[in-house]
């Protein structure tokens, strides 16, 4: 089931390349019936560096093999459309889209005009029919969920979180959908905000290298507004079927690579114009039903349709702090330390509690302890835990047993925990940017590593630590090399910052008493 075989990711639709506008605009009833047979190639944006983790989760929970894209921060996998609900329950993915077609080695023309003309012509040749059925089915699932509020795949508090979301790094483009018509089309807003919201700064979902190109992406949405709006006259009329509602759409282009003779704006504008002409849809940058994605990475071109209204990483947090960690990244970090039933897992610098809350939700047979020295952070984390408890109650009141998680205010260098009593430490260490300072980190990091070494079980204890202050961390680690051994490093992108997640294993050596060390 690996979709990486040919250049077209949906080969099973030979007769459907020329989709009729009217036929696709009024899909509703057929889509639900065909859900059983319909298959979809799903693209997912994931935290950069954790592509393999996401692929393992997909294999484990959906039984599908994934292909990791050359464009960092994306994976592709094939599932029957009836599994869409389970796809939305994945913990490691930020945004989801259904692939219309994929071109592994797209041949761009020499001149900009020819290249853009080719992209326009491509619209008529793409196999839109089945992906649009998947999009429609996805919509109907979300509508059911909104009505019942039982399945709760995405947070009931999403509105609340949207208003807070800016703290996650500023230009988190989710705010564009705050007034979107979520009730009518809950499935379609935000996936390439997602490709970039991936790192909430909105600059690049790919490793920070192509920041310049990806910065363009932030502007695309505004620019296409201007150009597509000029073309909406065709979309204002009726579609091929009298009573069908005219769908509103936008095209978002993500481009990475320095060999292109066009900008993201130009590609989105011209491709969007052709989409509008082909389907007779109406361009609308904020209240759209369908978001068409044009992802270009060097010579790889993927056309998709968004399936998520906002990034799935916002699932647990209702009370944000200045540096709230995305739940998807927290999940990746936790998976890295391979939690076993009955493990005691500690986050000594928990901030708003993203890591322990994710841990308690996904590994309920472990005991999670969270703490922070900042009373405000502890309060926010406690509020987030309360929100999770309320959510669990609304899901199924009979089974709402609480969560195996406690939150404490403490001093990271002097933890009130017995020596050797903890199995796993997972934490997001201060980067020294928005919280603390690089200078303070030179004292804090070695002291933290010593104290973590003291509380961890010799021989089996492990720690997964995220930091952007890599130089300071390496120096601190060299000072405590007798108790911590570095087993793995995962390079990640956090809000546009190039950071690292370190997996450390506890040696058998006894940690010295902190007084003699300092």
TrEMBL record:
CDD domains on file: THUMP_AdoMetMT
THUMP domain boundaries: 197-307
Compositional bias of kind Polar residues: 194-207, 217-229
This protein's GO CC annotations: cytoplasm; tRNA methyltransferase complex
Claim: RNA-binding is one of the keywords in the record: yes
InterPro entries: RlmKL-like_Mtase, RlmKL-like_Mtase_CS, SAM-dependent_MTases_sf, THUMP_dom
Region Disordered, residue ranges: 1-30, 140-243
Composition bias, Basic residues: 141-153
GO molecular function, one term: tRNA (guanine) methyltransferase activity
Keywords: Cytoplasm, Methyltransferase, RNA-binding, Transferase, tRNA processing
Broad class of the protein's primary localization: cytoplasm
Pfam families per UniProt: THUMP, UPF0020
Superkingdom, natural source: Eukaryota
Subcellular location: Cytoplasm
One GO process term, biological-process aspect: tRNA methylation
Composition-biased stretches (Low complexity): 17-30
Designated name of the protein: THUM3 protein
Organism: Chaetops frenatus
């Amino acid at each position: 089931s690996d979709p990486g075989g040919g250049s077209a990711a949906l080969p099973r639709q030979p007769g459907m390349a020329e989709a009729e506008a009217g036929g696709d605009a009024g899909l509703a009833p057929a889509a639900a019936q065909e859900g059983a047979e319909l298959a979809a190639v799903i693209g997912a944006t994931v935290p950069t560096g954790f592509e393999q983790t996401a692929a393992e989760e997909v294999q484990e929970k959906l039984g599908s093999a994934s292909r990791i894209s050359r464009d960092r921060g994306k994976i592709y996998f094939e599932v029957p459309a009836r599994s869409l609900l389970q796809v939305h329950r994945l913990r490691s993915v930020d945004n989801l889209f259904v692939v219309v077609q994929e071109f592994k080695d797209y041949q761009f023309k020499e001149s900009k005009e020819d290249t853009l003309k080719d992209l326009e012509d491509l619209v008529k040749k793409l196999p839109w029919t089945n992906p649009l059925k998947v999009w429609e089915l996805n919509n109907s699932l979300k509508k059911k969920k909104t009505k019942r509020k039982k399945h709760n795949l995405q947070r009931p508090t999403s509105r609340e979180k949207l208003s807070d979301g800016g703290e996650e790094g500023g230009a988190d483009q989710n705010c564009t959908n705050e007034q979107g018509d979520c009730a009518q089309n809950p499935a379609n807003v935000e996936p390439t905000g997602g490709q970039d919201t991936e790192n909430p700064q909105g600059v690049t979902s790919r490793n920070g290298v192509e920041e310049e190109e990806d910065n363009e992406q932030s502007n695309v949405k505004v620019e296409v507004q201007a150009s597509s709006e000029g073309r909406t006259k065709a979309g204002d009329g009726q579609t091929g079927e009298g009573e069908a509602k005219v769908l509103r759409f936008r095209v978002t282009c993500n481009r990475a690579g320095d060999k292109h003779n066009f900008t993201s704006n130009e590609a989105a504008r011209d491709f969007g114009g052709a989409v509008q002409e082909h389907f007779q849809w109406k361009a609308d940058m904020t209240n759209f039903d369908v978001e068409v994605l044009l992802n270009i990475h060097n010579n790889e071109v993927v056309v998709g349709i968004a399936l998520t209204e906002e990034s799935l990483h916002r699932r647990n947090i209702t009370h944000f702090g200045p540096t709230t960690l995305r739940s998807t990244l927290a999940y990746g970090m936790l998976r890295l330390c391979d939690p076993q039933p009955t493990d005691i897992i500690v986050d000594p610098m928990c901030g708003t509690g993203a890591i322990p809350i994710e841990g308690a939700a996904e590994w309920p047979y472990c005991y999670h302890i969270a703490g922070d020295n900042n009373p405000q952070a502890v309060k926010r984390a406690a509020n987030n835990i309360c929100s999770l408890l309320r959510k669990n109650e609304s899901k199924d009141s009979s089974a709402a047993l609480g969560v195996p998680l406690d939150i404490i205010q403490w001093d990271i260098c002097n933890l009130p925990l017995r020596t050797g009593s903890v199995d796993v430490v997972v934490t997001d260490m201060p980067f020294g940017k928005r919280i603390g300072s690089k200078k303070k980190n030179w004292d804090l990091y070695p002291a933290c590593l010593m104290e973590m070494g003291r509380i961890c079980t010799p021989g089996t204890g492990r720690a997964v630590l995220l930091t952007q202050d890599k130089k300071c961390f390496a120096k601190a680690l060299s000072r405590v090399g007798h108790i911590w051994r570095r087993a793995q490093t995962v390079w990640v992108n956090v809000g546009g910052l190039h950071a690292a997640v370190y997996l450390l294993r506890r040696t058998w050596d006894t940690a010295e008493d902190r007084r003699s060390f300092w």
